[in-house]
User: What shape does this take?
Amino acid sequence: MAFDVPSSPVSPAGSIEFTVGNQDIYTWNITLSQPLFTGFALLSQYRIKELGIKTAQIEKEMVVIDLVRDVKTTYFNVLLTEKVLTVADEAVKNLKAHERDAEQFYKQGMIPYNDLLKAKVALANTIQERERVKAGVKIAVSALNTLLDFDINQKTEIEGILSLPPASYKLADLLHEASENRPELKMLHLAVKSIDHGIRLVKSAYYPKIAIAGYYEQTGDNFLATENDYGAIYNSAVILQAKWMLFEGGKTRSDVAKYRYDKKAIIKKFEWAENGIKLEVKNAFTNLHVSDKNIKTAQEALIQAKENWRITNLQYQEQIATSTDVLDARTFLTQAELNRYRALYGHMKGITDLERAVGKKYPVLENQSPPIEDRKPSPA
Assistant: This one.
């Protein structure tokens, strides 16, 4: 709204003065403009913003997938450290029993003093190792609490895994699934589509810009401008506007060329990322296959180590075996038990790594991001 006070609202005509306007003049107006044709600029801007939203959704999806992998891996690490502590407790229990036997044999003069010392030193070392494992369990639980956003000192109890889940994978299927699901590839694909719309936006400078504008004005002697004795109260107009940049020094052509070079760079990055993901999937698939074989080998070795410990311990009771033989047998058994648990939880971690490599989506993520029609961008 405009307010105007004219310096002289009267006009002299000889000895007579005529009033030609109001002392106070109020004016307000409204202008509305509607683009009719922008050379596809508005549509391109809309598409670019829409792709930006999709990209943000995929970024969220990638964060959640990484978090799920980290939580599962840390969970398996807690289970493994707890099993290692169980093995350490068992080893301490066995070596305490061996130390008691050695003391009795030494008192009876059946073994030399250094054999007793071997038993004591082995027990002390095992107790120290058990304390380190206890600390490892606390650290693993704290790491899990951190990922779950719990208090870091909270005593979190987790359930173990009773059996291995059935797992049967085909490399070709995994590679196809990764090319369909990996968020990184989706984001690069959207980046290519965004550049295509950017090129269209820049090319809009080649076209005229056409818009229609409506203008309405009221002028009067009061605040609402409803009275005017000296002029028209209402004024309105409809205007058709057209703008066309006929010469811009090749700027548009240069901008289009830049976008096309950027598109080629992203397509090449897409190809590199796709090849890297294929290698990641194959590595995870191979490692899982190796861990599967290691489970069977570790299980057989554990059975043999347990039998060796049992026989050696009986032989020591009969003084057929030495204290060194007993300690060696216990060491073999401890190693076999650790190898078995590491193989089991290594297998579970391998499944987790493979799921991340193929970009497995979890229920919380379903329908979070719109489908991508063409997974691999075209240079065209």
Notes: Residues 1-8, 364-380 have pLDDT under 50 and may be disordered.
